[in-house]
DNA sequence: AGTATCCGTAAGCAAACCTGAAGGGTCGCG
DNA sequence: CGCGACCCTTCAGGTTTGCTTACGGATACT
């Protein structure tokens, strides 16, 4: 009988690309992974890996095996979830990742709510960009993710993921407060923000991609002078009269900022959703976490400008 | 992550009943099985076994786990079959079981055909009663089974089995040759065989159950004086003028017997089929074996009386 | 009551696994 | 073009895991 542990190594290799990465992800030495895969190859009697430069490439047979393995791993996880669900109380540990504004605005309250209701449930929270978080979720490094979806921007798709909307929040342009200087005060729409410095998230994020697209549609290429994934820094840069930036309502939940807000064309809203793997979607820990989030986060986030 | 090897032990326990039987089936010591199940119990954190007299009983949680495990094992097997199917040649080993008349009439030829076409395919053949064979097939102790199905007699059902008809053969009553004695010569139908000794297979077999039912419908309870699962012995007992017996055409393929044959009411036919587990139904070894059987066994067995 | 069967625990032992070091090959950069 | 960085593999080693035997408690059958 094929060993699932070995099959898993192959699946991880397919997902991560190099044998060294697999080893690091599973906290093993590359040597061990190599040996195990060699053993698997010997067992099935069909070559699974071919050398490709200094890396390895999966053969067609290996791809077939990976396909089955994905199913098997999901089923194994589902089995574990199902049987722990039969236990008396929601316990165990759930690894959650959220992006910054949710972490700041709602997680303290959500966590307090969770530990009060389920003292034996251990929640490990990490802050992670949505794209990375979904990726790690698919790789079973996380159990629950709060991610975002910008309008008309195809969110990355991963198989076996269970997504549920959490809330939506308005996206606006944030300008320095009135009196910070004429160049800011003259701006009354996005189209007029072509000649001022911007603060944006790093390239590769959905946020960056989306706002750049909006700028181009408005007729200009933004001058990105400040680049950071810390949205709090964006706010600080705008408040202090150094830049304009995209600002979502989620960031304004904790403390009202002095920034000036301008509606974007079409009053766009970002969708915030939770995601987990389908195999564990019914496990008590996941259900409890989602419920806590739903209690804490308003279904429709509407803040006065 | 749950170890599949341990889960398998639990599944086998569910199928076999006692921990000792599981150990024997997997060629291990009962102690080992007990330890592994204990480990599994510790891992899931939920009790899986309760003492029931000197045996153990599965808890509801364990049953859930078994259900998932069955799926996982099937998938694992399918993965292995799929990847070996990609290999250049049909090789490996297939464990086949057939019942007596097929073993005698057709297997020598079928085996010769197989080893000629696929020299690297190793076939392990055993002779086994259909009920037992199907049972062992479901338990993964066999890979391919040739079994029978009597008309109006519900064949035992096992999940995950792939059945395909192989042939049908006529069922008749066999009497001693003319001249063996008046008590035999006077019989011209089943209804008149109520006061003569019978040779039958042991109770619990489909054959026994079916012919007894036919006798009762004909208005008598048969006197079973000779009981053996060796159908060749039935023939010998009939030929030598000691009994009457049910005789299928399959038994007459090799050598014509001197027995006298009488049609049964409705000219009933038995169905002979091959069965394998769905997970491995597409593996080259299984396909090759089934093909060899189909070549050797006529689709419809019709022998002159 | 006696016996056989079954499950669980303890201790010794063998196999499997993982680690670390060394080697060969490839890619990228100066 | 040479060097370093990176990656995979092999080999020898220690450690963990799992298996086996032996023993004891409990239960069913005769």
Automatic annotation (TrEMBL), chains A, B:
It holds the Pfam family LysR_substrate. The keyword DNA-binding applies. SUPFAM superfamilies: Periplasmic binding protein-like II, Winged helix' DNA-binding domain. One of its GO terms (molecular function) is DNA binding. It comes from the Bacteria. The keyword S-adenosyl-L-methionine does not apply. GO terms for cellular component: protein-DNA complex. InterPro entries: LysR_HTH_N, LysR_subst-bd, WH-like_DNA-bd_sf, WH_DNA-bd_sf. Keywords: DNA-binding, Transcription, Transcription regulation. Gene3D superfamilies: 3.40.190.290, Winged helix-like DNA-binding domain superfamily/Winged helix DNA-binding domain. Residues 2-59 form the HTH lysR-type domain. Belongs to the LysR transcriptional regulatory family. This is LysR family transcriptional regulator. The lineage of its organism: Bacteria, Bacillati, Actinomycetota, Actinomycetes, Propionibacteriales.
């Amino acid at each position: 009988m094929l060993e699932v542990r070995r099959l898993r190594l192959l699946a991880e290799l397919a997902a991560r690309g190099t044998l060294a990465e697999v080893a690091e992800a599973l906290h093993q030495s590359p040597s061990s992974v190599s040996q195990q895969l060699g053993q698997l190859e010997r067992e099935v009697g069909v070559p699974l890996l071919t050398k490709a430069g200094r890396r390895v490439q999966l053969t067609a047979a290996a791809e077939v095996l990976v396909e089955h393995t994905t199913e098997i791993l999901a089923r194994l996880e589902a089995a574990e979830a199902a049987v722990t669900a039969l236990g008396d109380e929601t316990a165990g540990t759930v690894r959650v990742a959220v992006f910054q504004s949710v972490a700041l605005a709602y997680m303290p309250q959500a966590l307090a709510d969770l530990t009060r209701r389920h003292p034996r449930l251990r929640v490990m929270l990490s802050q992670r960009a949505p794209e990375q978080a979904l990726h790690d979720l698919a790789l079973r490094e996380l159990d629950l993710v709060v991610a975002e979806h910008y309008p008309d921007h195809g969110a990355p798709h991963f198989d076996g993921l269970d997504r549920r909307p959490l809330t939506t929040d308005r996206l606006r342009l944030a300008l320095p407060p009135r009196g910070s200087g004429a160049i800011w005060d003259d701006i009354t729409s996005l189209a007029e923000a072509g000649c001022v410095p911007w603060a944006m998230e790093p390239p590769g994020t959905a946020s960056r991609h989306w706002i750049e697209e909006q700028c181009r549609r408005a007729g200009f290429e933004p001058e990105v002078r400040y680049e950071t994934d810390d949205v709090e820094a964006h706010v600080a840069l705008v408040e202090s009269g150094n830049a304009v930036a995209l600002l979502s309502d989620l960031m304004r939940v904790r403390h009202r900022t002095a920034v000036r807000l301008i509606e974007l064309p079409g009053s766009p809203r970002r969708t915030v959703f939770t995601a987990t793997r389908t195999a564990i979607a019914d496990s008590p820990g996941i259900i409890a976490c989602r419920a806590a989030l739903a209690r804490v986060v308003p279904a429709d986030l509407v803040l006065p400008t």
